[in-house]
Every structure is written in C-alpha cells, then in structure tokens.
Design a protein that fits this description.
heterodimer; A: mainly alpha; globular; B: alpha/beta; Rossmann fold; six-stranded mixed β-sheet; 11 helices; 40% helix
Chain lengths: 376, 366
Amino acid sequence: MMLRLEPRPEPSRLAVWLSPLVALLATLAIGAAIFAWLGFDPKNALAVFFIKPINSWYGVSELLLKAAPLMLIANGLALGFRANVWNIGAEGQLILGALGATGIALAFDGVEARWLLPLMLICGTVCGIAWAAIPAFLRTRFRANEILTSLMLVYVAGYLLSFLIHGPWRDPEGYNFPQSILFSASALLPTVGAEGRLNISIFFALGVALLCWLFVKKSWLGFQMRVAGLAPTAALYAGIPANRSVWLGLLAGGGCAGLAGACEVTGPLGQLTASVSPGYGFAAIIVAFVGRLHPIGIVFASLLLSLLYLGGEAAQIQLGLPSAITGLFQGALLFLLLGADVFIRYRLRFVFSRLASSDVTPSPEPAPPTLPASHH
Amino acid sequence: MNLKTLSMSVLLTAVALCCASALAAPAPDAKTEPLKVGFVYVSPIGDAGWTFQHDQARLAIEKKFGNKIQTKYIESVPEGADAERVIRDLAQNGYKLIFTTSFGFMNPTLKVANQYPKNYFEHATGFKTAKNMGFYNARFYEGRYLAGIIAGKMTKTNVAGYVASYPIPEVVMGINAFTRGMRSVNPNAQVKVVWVNSWYDPGREREAADTLVSQGADILTHHSDSTAVVQAAEAKKVYAIAYHSDMSKYAPHAQLAAVTHHWENYYTGVVQSALDGTWKPDRVWGGIKGGFIDVGPINPVVPAAVVALVNTAKADIASGKLHPFVGPMRDNEGKERLAPGQTISDEALLKMDYYVEGVQGKLPTK
C-alpha cells in the first residue's frame, strides 16, 4: 500500500474549517502524551492548562486582557498581509504608540480632564501610523523591501524607548530606575467588570475586527487590495494602483499597533516602563496566520494564543512544569496547523500496491535506485 | 481457631489498623500545613547568573526547612503586564510568602500586595514598601571594590574593560566601586565601559568584550547575566572577573575571581520569621557583613600577597572600617563629589549618576 498526495481540483472548503480543529486536537493529543510521559495525569494536566485559567470571571478577564493587543495588531497586519504587504515591524509601531500616549500623559500630568485619555489614544495611534509610514514611503519611493525596513525600525524604536526612559522621561523620584511616573487617574483606561484589570481595549479590538471584516468583504477598496494580493499582475492590468495597497496595508498595521501600545501604558501598566510589550508585535504575526488573515479567525486565534500563555503559567504554578511548555504547545500548534493546511489544496490517496503494479499509466516517479540492477 | 473467629479477628485487626492509621496521620490541618513560598524570576534559571543565584537560595531553604515549607518558582516572567497576573496567581493559590526578584516587578508586586493584605511580599532591588511588602537588596558594590583590588594588581596594560547592562544606579555604583578598588592599589588604572542595553544578550556581550580587548583592556568584567564575557576573556587569553555566579567552568584560566550573590541567609531569616509569625516588612540592604556578597574562588595565579590584601579589605568592609566611597572623591569631569574624610550616604549611592575618576567616557543618560 502506498500513500500519495494529490492536488485537489478545487481547494476544499471542508478542509479550511477542519484544519484548525484537527491541528488543535492533535496538539492536545501530543500535549497529553507529553504530560503522561512526564508522569502527570494527562486529563488533569490538560484541565490545568486549558480550563483552569478561564473557569472564573477573573480568569476570563485576564485572557481577554492578554488577547486584546494581539487581536488589535493581528487584524491590522492581516489587511496588509492579504495584499502581500509584509509589515514585520508591529512591535516597533507598538512601542511608538506607547511613547505617543506617554508623551501626552507627561505633558498634562496632574490635569484631570475627560479629553486626556482620548487624546493619548489618538496620539499613540498617530505615532504608530507615522512609524509605519517610513517603510511605506521607502517601499513606494525607492522600492526598498518593507520586510527589512519595518523589522529594522523595531530596533530603532527600542533604542528610542530606551533613550527616553533612561533620560528625559524617567521618574525624577524613581532612583534613576528606567520607568516613568505613574499616570494620573484620568490618563487610565476604564476597567470592565467589578474585579480584575480588564479594560475597554477589548472593545477597541473587537470593533477593529468588525471594521476589518466590513472593509474586506464590503468595500471596493478592500476588494482591490485582495485582488492585489491574490494576483498582482492581474491587479496591475486592471489598473489597481499597487502603491495604494502598500500605503494602506502598512498604515493600518501601524495604526492598530500604535493603539495597542497606547492601551498597554494606559491599561495594565499605568506608566511607561523599559519593557512595554512581551513581544505582542511579533506574536500577532503568528495570530494573523493562525487566524488565516480572517477577522473572525483572528479573534479566535488571539484567544487561543493567550490561553496558551495563561495555561503555561498555570502549569508552572500548579504542576511545577518548566516555562518551556508554553513554547512547546505554540510550536506544536503552528507546526500541525501548517501540516493540516496541506490538505486544503491536496488530498491523500491510498494506492494499493496490487492495483499500482497493474496500473497502465506510468508512474511519474523515477524508479528507486536499487531496482535497476534486477531489471537487467 | 475456627473460620468464624478467624474472620472476626481479621475484621478486628482491620478496624484497629484503620483507627491507628487515622490517629497516626491526622488530616493536614492549619498547623501542620507547610508554608507555601513562591518565587517569581525574570529569566530562566540556567546554570549561572542572577536568577540562578536566587534559585540556589530557594533550594537551600527547601533543604533547611524540609516539609515545613513548600516552594514554587515561575521563571521567565516578563517585566510588564504579565508579572501582576503571575504574582496574583501565586497569592491566590495560597502562597503566603512571595519573593519577586527583579526591579520591574515592583509596581505589580505593590498592586497585588494591596489586594492580598494577609500575604507577605518581598521585592528585590526596588524602593517601594507597604504594610505587607518589604524590599531587599545587596551592596554589590562592596564585592566590586574587592574585585577591583585584584584587577588593579593583575593588570599589565592598566586598562580594565567593563561590559554593562543599563545605566541605573546599581550598575553605575558597581563600575565606580570597581574603579576605586583598582585605583586604590594602582593609581594609573583606567576603566572602559561598553553598554549593551540588555540584562541578557550573549551576542552583544561578546561583541562588547571583544571591543574592549581590542582597546587594550587585559581584564574584563561585566554586569550582565550571561557567561559570554568570561568566555570571551578565555578565548582572547585575558583575565576576567565574573559576576553573579562562579563561572570558572566556562573560563578556568581567565577567571581571576567572581563577585557572587548569596541570598540564602536572608531567605532563611525571612522564612523563619514567616513561620514564627513575626514577619515584618523591612528595608534590607545587606553586604559582605550579612553574607549577601562574596568574592568567589580566587584563581591560583593571583599572588598570595594580593589575596591577603583582598582579605584584609573584606574584613575591614565587614567591620565598617573601610567604605569604597570615602572622600576625597571626584567624578571623571573633575567635580568634587565627596570632601576628604566624608563617607557617601546610602541616599546618594542610590541616586549615583556619575562616573568617578578613572572611568573613561560619559554616562549615556547624561
């Protein structure tokens, strides 16, 4: 018996929906096997990892708090990715967003006003857009590869943060430690729910997801960007301006990342610190692809990735497992998802050897190198 | 014995055994339940470095207190929004005593401490306290001064290279103490500093070390978490002074000594007071005297006379006779910072934002 991978005449719609499910189930199975091998009851360990973190409102609120920036950034990035615009620098745009919001907070420290928070969020978003405009300009004007320029700007943003937080924006009462003053109450995002620290950034994230969905499905511009991504030559022939996709793709990603950065400093951090983000800008790239660049997919993917983080912490606290377990689950999930995605365009055929030998059509594969000796 | 009596006696024995076992092993009640002690680490434990030394202390208290305590650590917790959740999860899971061992955990620890007034929180290297939150730190600079004495005696080029992480007072006072130690035995000594803007970045640390050697440094030291600098020294055949942990297995020839951190004594005391119910938030800044800091195994290539010099200085620092920062002391721009005979205050130390005479270059934040 042989297995053969054959291209499908049409991509399978069933496989599109089944693939993430199969990948998730296979990840769980591998996880269970690893837990069993480490000497834990797999059922209990999986419950600690995937259910315990979210079996209370507090747990859910923490999950949403962690998912909000990922959701926000991934949706922004996906707009560009769909049009083949590769913004890898969301982490830098996030940092700029945090800096923009902090700049306003420090300039108006002590001012208790309703307009302060919206101004901070807008300023953060604009800073993120401005940072993303640099690779957009370099790409459209000089044809510089935006993958490289946007990634390099992450490091520049990191140094800018480092300079400001060790220098002019440092808390004067903070013993020269790299952090700003704590923001005043009117510069903080309102929280959601009676307890916990979930804030309204989750609504921004869901709102952006909805906007992205409307833009891609319903707008002419969104359609043009999709065409530009799927068939660049056809788009060019149809007179769809390529530069507009580049600008729009990058600026959307930058704006969302900037807003996410502003929400981090006005939300759970409440100040600017030397490490604003634990790599949300990069993790969002994974989220965007796990979510298949689809707004609804991204919402679920960001929740899933956040759950992996929370589960990893719970596994450390309650089972004493090493922190590497989070990375292991992430890696397994991505690997299996990519593997399962093959079946969207291909199908597996069982070819029985008896049938294969009597098959009149010649095999496309060259004969194995050991065989010719017996033929002659 | 007939069957009936046999079965009767079996039954009786079983009942007796059950009763006995119930008496012998009382259900874990409040009194015998172990004290749960949680540790939040900023990096993986690894086999050398800042977190490794904290974990050594965790293992030490585990060994000392046995089943009276139960410890747990969470490693690689980023300094940011996630830290607060991890600390709260520990408190929620019954960890009565929680050590958070990085500066960036200060505000998250404070927030959780306010929500869990019955738990005890100990934060390393910060400056904020609460009713149930104390801080502790070590006078790393005392060890640096001693290491400087060794460096000053062993250098031939009179230039030492210092790979530094972030320009915060803790790091700056280490550079200054090292320089003053060096110049106390070698007035011509100079210290060159390269900042890598990271606590842990073996690649950049290595590059910085190579740069310093090419600029004439024949002794390297570092305030960063990896073993890259001592390994670079071993490869370039220059000397090195390791930091945090003894790294001699990575640089058996290069490492002259190591400035090592020791949290065992402090953690033992804290756990004991928590067990006794006498724990109080404290502001602790221990040094050689409290056993927080030591200068590790001194390489046999260091002459006995130098070792004796170091030991004398060590005893003098412990007794308070010697302080690394006593005037006259100028900064490297010539400004007088301490008048002759004046000892620096802790307050001034904690805000140190200048290089002393002998350090080359400018602080990046100035």
